[in-house]
């Protein structure tokens, strides 16, 4: 089955982008207009995040989001045959900001969110830095698609580490100068170990692992956002969030990231992954000691 899927995706990936985007537009009609794929979740998330917006404004954001979501899927298929030269033309960034940290001999972390198209971005990143790129990810439950995605994601030498194996695998890179990429806006598995703060108008839990790892290793941390100047082209913005996470007080790095991501999302809300239930956990009294930042909410 894997080889059938790979063969089919390879043939599709050979199509010009203009044809692939026509296919994407067709899928948009199917998934948004006909099937309403996760439309209830998307609209609920948008209403919680932007209570000041009208329903018409939220629907417009949702439509743009679905176009971006499906474009991202089609663009991922393109990776099966896309050359590095093709990707470099379509993903640009201020890559040079990484060089001073590399020359210092330190490893570092890069925190980003679920903004499109992170799959293309990680492929291009490795072509503009000498860091060994490590990426923490959640494996796909379907074994055939997981095998395919793992092959695509690691084709340029980037190393993908399952989130469930991170504690055991990270020590093996102790003598490697790495850049660890973390999609840090994941919903935490444990609410008691999460940091809580106000995010898009609601108390929101953030995973604590990225900050704790950066503080333990005294690592520099970069924040990264992605914009879409036009269809099929992306521009990443990389900025140094701190030179040494260990000098920050506990929770400060996560708070900076939450504020950074909220600003990114408010500027380009259609670029964030709204189809996941970001606020499926409620603020409770037992999480009080995990609050970071100001304006701690009352308990209902």
Give me the count of strands. Answer: 9
| Major beta sheet summary | 7 strands, mixed
Q: List the helices and strands in order.
A: HHHHHEHEHEHEHEEEHEEH
Helix percent reads 40-55%
Low-confidence runs: none
Instruction: Estimate what percentage of residues fall within beta strands.
Output: 15-25%
User: Helical element count?
Assistant: 11
Distance between the ends: 51 Å
Mean of pLDDT: 94
Q: How many structural domains in the coordinates?
A: 2
Q: How are strands sequenced across the largest beta sheet?
A: 1-9-8-2-5-3-4
Structure report:
By secondary structure, this protein is of the alpha/beta class. The protein has two domains: 1-82, no CATH class; 89-272, no CATH class. 42% of the residues lie in helices and 18% in strands. It contains eleven helices and nine strands. The strands form two sheets. A seven-stranded mixed beta sheet has the order 1-9-8-2-5-3-4, sandwiched between helices. The chain has a two-stranded antiparallel sheet with strand order 6-7. β8 (221-230) and β9 (233-242) form a beta hairpin. α2 (17-34) packs across α4 (55-78) and α3 crosses α4 (55-78). The longest helix is centred in the first third of the chain and has 24 residues, at 55-78. The protein is globular and about 50 Å long. The model has no long low-confidence stretch (mean pLDDT 94).
